[in-house]
Specification:
The protein is an alpha/beta fold. The protein is built from 12 helices and 9 strands. Helix 1 packs antiparallel against helix 2, helix 2 crosses helix 3 and helix 6 packs across helix 12. The termini are far apart.
Length: about 375
Amino acid sequence: MARAFGATFAVLSWAFTAWWGSHRSASPRVLGRWSPGYAASVGAAALVSLALTLAVWFPTGRRILKRLGVAAAATVATLLLAEAAFRLLDPWGISYYETSFQLQRARIADPDLQFRNAPNRHVAAAGVEYDFNELGMRERPVGAKSAGEYRVLLLGDSVTMAWGVPFEDTPGIQLERAASARSGRSVRTLNAGVGGYNTVQELAFLRKFGEALEPDLVLLLYAGNDQEANEPLGDPQAAFTLAGRTPPEVMQRLAWRSWIWRAVLHWKRYARRAAAPPIDRGSEGWRASMASVRAIADECARRGVAFGLVFARWRRDPVFEALEADLAAAAREKGIVYEDALPWFGGRDLSVLRRSAVDGHLNREGNHLFGAGLDGFLARHSWPPP
């Protein structure tokens, strides 16, 4: 029986070695196929396979193999228990990555927007329900505009969409309720926030759907990473399949399904970003973002729609300070009604406003503060008008 198990593992090991060795490195310096590092990994896999094969045929080897098997089983059991504990207790908020995974799977390619949420889709992620309407917005069905209704279209990314909180706690709903009560009018917010969008995509959304949505006011909720360029995704679903992947890519994607692995990579990435990121106003993403802010203002002016710009931030950061200066300059140039949201949070401790140490999005309390700040912004500029 021991020999049969050993032989099975040896065959599986050789099969893995052959599969792993089928990869061709980008810099094939060893045998015209592998990089030195990859060649070492293939050699290590072959040595393990050879050791397993030899162990099957010798009594001493089988005893050693049995001990190694027990140790390997104990190690696997320990890792499985640790994985279960991570998923159950969610230390540091690693569920953020599972939410990201689930929401990315709900995207579809779009020729004008690069990607958008699939219409009429329901997603449950980390205990939060996300319902996307006929346009892929995290919103109720749009429907016909009623008499006297004042519509506010919110453009933005995951901050606007309100990542990680129920729909009733989103800043759009908080604004809708507060503005309706304050003004005595029927105020309807339309949440067009999509996770991962930048200002270029937000402009494209306005051009594609703005007329059909009939807003009276467009609010651009500018997030601190909106100046980052997005590469076309092609088919968003292709990122979640293993078909056609190289062996290293397959292993990376399989490892990424582990929450422990996600935690290790997150803290490794966080340590690398300890230093302040560079400020590059000349980058393509930065320039396109500022141009899009101005273009949104022009689009609203052309349609006779009011436009407000809010820098949706709740902490200080060198990049954010540079963005704030450029947004304020664009507002002065275009006559845009603009505010920096930082004072709305009153210097509150960020740790009690964000969802977790890993997930910097606002939690329920933070979203309620943001919604109240948005209503104050509208009130200061007489929106909606009497």
